[in-house]
From TrEMBL, chain A:
<dbReference type="GO" id="GO:0030008">
    <property type="term" value="C:TRAPP complex"/>
</dbReference>
<keyword id="KW-0597">Phosphoprotein</keyword>
<dbReference type="GO" id="GO:0090234">
    <property type="term" value="P:regulation of kinetochore assembly"/>
</dbReference>
<dbReference type="GO" id="GO:0000776">
    <property type="term" value="C:kinetochore"/>
</dbReference>
<feature type="region of interest" description="Disordered">
    <location>
        <begin position="73"/>
        <end position="103"/>
    </location>
</feature>
<dbReference type="GO" id="GO:0051310">
    <property type="term" value="P:metaphase chromosome alignment"/>
</dbReference>
<dbReference type="GO" id="GO:1905342">
    <property type="term" value="P:positive regulation of protein localization to kinetochore"/>
</dbReference>
<dbReference type="GO" id="GO:0006888">
    <property type="term" value="P:endoplasmic reticulum to Golgi vesicle-mediated transport"/>
</dbReference>
<dbReference type="GO" id="GO:0005794">
    <property type="term" value="C:Golgi apparatus"/>
</dbReference>
Automatic annotation (TrEMBL), chain B:
<feature type="domain" description="Trafficking protein particle complex subunit 13 N-terminal">
    <location>
        <begin position="10"/>
        <end position="168"/>
    </location>
</feature>
<dbReference type="InterPro" id="IPR055428">
    <property type="entry name" value="TRAPPC13_C"/>
</dbReference>
<protein>
    <recommendedName>
        <fullName>Trafficking protein particle complex subunit 13</fullName>
    </recommendedName>
</protein>
<dbReference type="GO" id="GO:1990072">
    <property type="term" value="C:TRAPPIII protein complex"/>
</dbReference>
<dbReference type="Pfam" id="PF06159">
    <property type="entry name" value="TRAPPC13_N"/>
</dbReference>
<feature type="domain" description="Trafficking protein particle complex subunit 13 middle">
    <location>
        <begin position="172"/>
        <end position="301"/>
    </location>
</feature>
<dbReference type="InterPro" id="IPR055427">
    <property type="entry name" value="TRAPPC13_N"/>
</dbReference>
<dbReference type="Pfam" id="PF23647">
    <property type="entry name" value="TRAPPC13_M"/>
</dbReference>
<feature type="domain" description="Trafficking protein particle complex subunit 13 C-terminal">
    <location>
        <begin position="314"/>
        <end position="409"/>
    </location>
</feature>
Length: 538, 418
């Protein structure tokens, strides 16, 4: 049922490029002798590297082969320890035996000289060294495999000094806001209708104008759950960047920051359930693979920097969005493509970085990304109601994230319950108990404590539901109301309120008053992201 | 907003809610990495969200139960459960409250109330709760009639009724097919195979807990839907333990007539009752359903008054070499003694050896005789044995027997062990 990825990997070219030997640029010596200055010297350093031969972006004939190592669908089982050094892992050695492409994965070869130099400067407070290690992290983070077409364009861009490059508009990302309005506050609207203007006026929530017009203000809005205002603020900041309302289809440029803003805006739209709006604005981004979304496209703004500007989480979001729009198969296809690239980069990182100090961090990053993709795929299969495949996928997630085994086994048990297979569900719940007992003392205790962190709400909610089925409406209501009153900041949750309002409607004809009380409680505590449908006041 | 003039203001309010099983709340996980703009914020929001699973916030399927928001569908064989609540909306004490719940179908009226006694009094803002259960046994329109009678403080007797209509739909489509086994050559009994095709015509997945065939008095049944693997009974359906909407599954059963009925089995005529299917299934959170089919019937293949069956025949024979078969001729009538004449007719590939047109002697009712015959084939390949004719001399009726069996004829270059 899971289609194979349509991501085309270029076949290995017959003629391999001569092994790229890493050699220090002749001008490096000028850095080693003198006192190191800060920024200007750093940029000089980068400039000189871009003209030396070992970065093949300047070599238009660089081989187009990509590594043959393709992982299977399930998560890779276990990593090689950093201690097992690949004999070929030393500065200057080529790795033609691993089939690592010299072009697209140059980023993984070039860390060699940097890590060597880093070792030289290790331990110093040198800002230069810091700049180096920062770029190391960037490199690791932004590593991505562009498609063949994109790679060609990027190569052409890098060699612009020899010939001008014309990039077809079709290959450019030209996003813009697709809706301009202030998102509004559904809670306030309800208050106006049911509690009157005076009460509504008392509602104070942060909106886009009441915070600092910056990332700091944005984070404020997100954390206090005023996501509509946050979407607005993102919109303003993007408009300042030239990608505001009506700007879609107009030539523009991208930066790390602008893409982060887009990511946050789209992520919040998804959290708010505004899937169509998110899809509209995602349109311009295509498959997140256009050449102008790569650092190489901007050699003057990001000299020497390689990789994709698109945050990894944005790729996940882009894939997952489709299942909320009713196209789960498309979600799976996209997730599969992401997973394929992750596997390839991880495999290449493995072979090229073994034995280097940055190995562990890199392995950890790509392992967690693979885990995230697998999780998404399992969730998607669940949404598609393909329970057999979903359960298999969740088992794969357990292999990726063994610390979540009890929760995932419990989740699979709940899936069995949903089908009606009670026996299998019981087996899984028993398995959960076995697993939690197996955990070592302290870790086991932490798990148990964690499960108790927010124990009341879920357990109490479910107990209340059971009471209702036993014919004890009043008791059930008492339980839920007590819960909500005890810690309204935490417990005014959509699902609990749904249950509460349903029971109010069952109880009496005076349910309207009680629901309005809930509205008042919500008004003073919840941000503009609150889903007012659960109050059933419409 | 329309305002309908109330016919009469009642002090009590009646509310009814169908208690389908609750559903589990699902989340929409949105995450980002530490280096991204929101940093840990998204993850923190998910951790603070009480509906996510602690420690596995990306898991979509939460643990919280949500009450049903609409009536949903109800299917034949399921249990209709409903909450009935009578609430005192007034500020006076109400006396002698009697709540009755009946279910009216097209054919009958059933009383569903748990208790038929009147409640002495109901204080303001208190309620009388009842949960009723009823296993639905009919398809079509059902009406839940709830009647409340009470006496006000002033002594006035009041009464009102509410009607709730719902449709009961068919959950399964069952098709059956009978197969006659090739006669077991060593005994007189006949095996019948029943294939039951069950299709889920609801809108949600169904877990088939048990599908069994309860045989009629004449048969013993063996179910052929599980295999013994390493000592455990494993279903032939493997890991796909449930039926998605519109999926079909085939179940197979083997029926053998019991010894007492064995003699009759060879000459069973007309319609026989095989047994009935008992199907138990579960849906969301263990909602149970159960159905039994009506008695399944089988038309026995007609043998007429005279039956010819094969007792012994080789699988493979040599080309143009005579071989022997043994036939059994049974007088299926219960009263007449038969005088039969056997004729053998050749076909283009089958050539009979022996005397055609001979008398077989008297055959008494319900008895049989065995006959050895010799024949040869002149054509290679899988040949069908045909050409036997039995004539009942008294009734002057001839029974034709063609395509009795098949035999594989090989060239004599390939020697066949005889």
């Amino acid at each position: 049922m899971v289609k194979s990825p349509s991501f085309s990997s270029a076949s290995e070219t017959a003629a391999r490029t001569p092994p790229q030997v890493v050699q220090p640029s002749p001008s490096l010596s000028k850095f080693f002798g003198d006192t190191i200055n800060t920024n200007s010297l750093a940029s000089d350093f980068f400039d000189s590297f871009t003209t030396s031969t070992f970065i093949s972006v300047s070599n238009p004939n660089a081989g187009a082969s990509v590594p043959e190592k393709l992982s299977s669908l399930t998560a890779p089982a276990g990593e090689t320890s950093p201690d097992s050094t690949d004999p070929s892992c030393s500065a200057g050695a080529e790795r033609s035996e691993s089939g690592v492409s010299t072009a697209s994965l140059e980023i993984l070869e070039s860390p060699k000289p940097f890590s060597q130099i880093q070792a030289v400067f290790a331990g110093s407070d040198d800002p230069f060294a810091t700049a180096l290690s920062m770029s190391e992290m960037d490199r690791r983070n932004d590593a991505w495999l562009p498609s063949e077409g994109t790679r060609d364009i990027l190569t052409a861009v890098a060699t612009q000094q020899y010939s001008t490059v014309f990039v077809d508009k079709e290959n450019l990302t030209m996003p813009g806001l697709r809706f301009d309005n202030i998102q509004g506050d559904a809670v306030k609207d309800l208050m106006l209708r049911f509690l009157g203007e005076k009460a509504a006026a008392k509602r104070q929530v942060l909106n886009a104008s009441s915070v600092e017009q910056s990332f700091v203000g944005l984070k404020q809005l997100i954390s206090c759950r005023n996501w509509r205002a946050a979407v607005d603020l993102c919109g303003r900041l993007l408009a300042a960047h030239g990608q505001g309302y009506g700007k879609s289809g107009l030539p523009t440029s991208h930066t790390t920051d602008s893409l982060q803003l887009w990511f946050v805006r789209l992520a919040l739209l998804v959290k708010l359930g505004l899937f169509q709006n998110a899809e509209m604005e995602f349109e311009s981004f295509g498959n997140l693979d256009q050449p102008d979304l790569y650092y190489e496209y901007y050699p003057h703004v990001y000299p020497g920097r390689r990789g994709s500007m698109v945050p990894f989480s944005m790729r996940i979001l882009h894939a997952e969005l489709q299942q909320y729009l009713g196209n789960p198969q498309e979600s799976l296809d996209r997730l599969h493509r992401v997973k394929t690239v992750c596997s390839k980069v991880r495999a290449a990182t493995h072979s090229s970085l073994t034995g280097c100090p940055c190995f562990a961090a890199s392995v950890q990053l790509w392992r967690s990304r693979l885990g995230r993709v697998t999780y998404s795929m399992a969730n998607c299969l669940l949404l598609m109601k393909d329970y057999v495949l979903a359960v298999e996928a969740y088992h794969a997630v357990i292999r990726c994230c063994p610390e979540q085994e009890p929760q995932l086994l419990s989740g699979i048990g709940r899936i069995s319950l949903q089908i009606g297979d009670i026996k299998t569900a019981e087996k899984y719940f028993q398995e959960v108990e076995k697993v939690t007992q197996k955990l070592d003392g302290p870790q086991g205790k932490i798990m148990v404590l964690m499960n108790r962190k927010c124990p009341s709400l879920c357990a109490n909610n479910n107990a209340a539901v059971c009471l209702l089925y036993l014919g004890k409406l009043k008791d059930s209501l008492r339980q839920l109301e007590a819960l909500v009153q005890r810690d309204p900041g935490h417990y005014l949750h959509e699902s609990v309120l749904f249950n509460l309002t349903t029971m109010y409607e069952l109880e009496s004809s005076r349910s309207m008053q009680k629901k309005q009380c809930l509205l008042e409680a919500v008004a003073s505590r919840e941000g503009d992201s609150f889903n007012t449908q659960c109050l059933k006041l419409a | 907003m329309e305002v309908n003039p109330p016919k009469q203001e009642h002090l009590l309010a009646l509310k009814v809610m169908r208690l389908t099983k609750p559903t589990l709340f699902t989340n929409i996980p949105v995450t980002c990495e530490e280096k991204d703009l929101p940093g840990d914020l998204f993850n923190q929001l998910m951790r603070d969200d009480p509906s996510t699973v602690n420690g596995a916030e990306i898991l979509m399927l939460g643990e919280m139960l949500t009450l049903p928001q609409n009536f949903g569908n109800i299917f034949l064989g399921e249990t209709f459960s409903s909450y009935i609540s009578v609430h005192n909306d007034s500020n006076q004490v109400v006396k002698d409250i009697l709540v009755k719940a009946d279910l009216q179908t097209s054919s009958q009226r059933l009383n569903l109330s748990a208790s038929n006694a009147a409640v002495a009094e109901l204080k303001p803002d208190c309620c009388i709760d009842d949960v009723i259960h009823h296993e639905v046994k009919e398809i079509g329109t059902h009406i839940l009639v709830c009647a409340v009678s009470y006496t006000t403080q002033a002594g006035e007797k009041m009464y009102f009724r509410k009607f709730f209509k719902f449709q009961v739909l068919k959950p399964l489509d069952v098709k059956t097919k009978f197969y006659n086994a090739e006669s077991d050559l060593s005994s007189v009994t006949d095996e019948v195979f029943l294939e039951a095709q069950i299709q889920n015509i609801t809108t949600s997945p169904m877990f088939m807990e048990k599908v069994s065939l309860e045989p009629s008095i004449m048969y013993n049944v063996t179910e052929l839907n599980s295999v013994s693997q390493a000592g455990e009974c494993v279903s032939t359906f493997g890991s796909r333990a449930y039926l998605q909407p519109m999926d079909t599954r085939q179940y197979l059963y083997c029926l053998k007539p019991k010894k007492e009925f064995a003699e009759k089995a060879g000459i069973i005529k007309g319609v026989t009752v095989i047994g009935k299917l008992d199907i138990v299934w579960k849906t969301n959170l263990g909602e149970r359903g159960r159905l039994q089919t009506s008695q399944l019937q089988r038309m026995a293949p007609g043998y007429g008054d005279v039956r010819l069956s094969l007792e012994a025949i080789p699988d493979t024979v040599n080309l143009e070499e005579p071989f022997h078969i043994t036939c059994k001729i049974t007088n299926c009538s219960s009263e007449r003694t038969m005088d039969l004449v056997l004729e053998m007719c050749n076909t283009s590939s089958i050539h009979w050896c022996g005397i055609s047109g001979r008398q077989l002697g008297k055959l008494h009712p319900s008895s049989s005789l065995c006959l050895a015959l010799t024949l040869l084939s002149s054509v290679q390949g899988l040949q069908s044995i045909s050409g036997l004719r039995l004539t009942d001399t008294f009734l002057k009726r001839t029974y034709e027997y063609d395509d009795i069996a098949q035999v594989c004829v090989v060239s004599s270059a390939i020697q066949v062990e005889s």
